[in-house]
Specification:
The chain is α/β, with parallel strands linked by helices and 243 residues long. It has two domains: 40 residues, no CATH class; 188 residues, 2-enoyl-CoA Hydratase, Chain A, domain 1 (Alpha-Beta Complex), CATH 3.90.226. The protein is built from seven helices and twelve strands.
Length: 243
């Protein structure tokens, strides 16, 4: 069954139920879930000042206005007087490249590389650099959480913050989605999607080929979910408290 066929079967009137038969990695038996159809409202960003003084920003996607919302979150962080920042990019599928560059520019010195776009065949690489202004000095304690659902623009930002020595990456290896694609119309009913370039981290690592390896690898198991534990968050907090 193709993805489009599955989507057509899952779609339906809001308030009605659809049954999904799920086989999870590492499990030998399927599970049946009954899901009520509805419009999914996904926030762009959430913030929290924890009792231990750690300021958490959860960024769900890189939408058109995410850099503006992120700026507001950073102002809240500054007002909190905290020096410990935790950016949670887990499950973030990416979005606007410009938003990732704009957000990275508030942490990385002006002129330093955030992203390299490589079209191959000897063509000149396109460099995306921080346009500043950098808002924080080296006293900022900064951890970024990533996992297998962190993709595209999320990987761009996380990779730049890691390789420029701004933040420590904690969690699982990222998804590995770093390509530039063009849609070419063939007929009225068909199109061809062609990859025309790949995104590289400042150190030249291909996001698509390798994904990002965290500095501190912490798996998140199904048992953790069932026990309502978050070892990745716990490790990030432990690292920030030690700084």
């Amino acid at each position: 069954m193709s993805i489009d066929t599955a989507i057509d079967m899952i779609h339906g009137k809001g308030g009605t139920a659809v049954k999904l038969l799920i086989l999870r990695p590492g499990e030998s038996e399927t599970r049946e879930f009954s899901i009520t159809r509805d419009t999914i409202q996904i926030p762009t960003l959430d913030t929290e000042l924890r009792p231990d003084g750690i300021f958490v920003i959860k960024l769900y996607s890189f939408s058109e206005n995410s850099d503006s919302l992120f700026k507001d979150a950073i102002l809240k962080f500054i007002d909190s007087k905290s020096s410990k920042l935790l950016l949670d990019l887990r499950g973030n599928p990416g979005g606007y490249l410009e938003s990732a560059v704009n957000i990275g520019s508030w942490f990385i010195d002006e002129g330093k590389t955030i992203l390299i776009e490589d079209s191959g065949n000897g063509n000149k690489q396109k460099i995306y650099r921080s346009h500043g202004p950098r808002l924080f000095n080296d006293k900022l304690a900064f951890v970024v959480l990533v996992d297998g659902g962190s993709a595209s623009a999320a990987e761009i930002l996380a990779g730049a913050l890691k390789e420029q020595g701004i933040a420590t990456l904690v969690g699982d290896k990222t998804f590995g989605k770093g390509s530039v694609q063009e849609l070419i119309k063939i007929t009225d009913d068909t199109s061809l999607k062609v990859t025309v370039a790949n995104w590289l981290t400042p150190n030249g690592i291909s996001i698509s080929l390798q994904g990002l390896e965290p500095d501190v690898k912490v798996p998140f198991t199904q048992k953790d979910v069932e026990d309502k534990k978050d070892p990745q968050m716990d490790k990030a907090v432990e690292i920030l408290k030690a700084k």
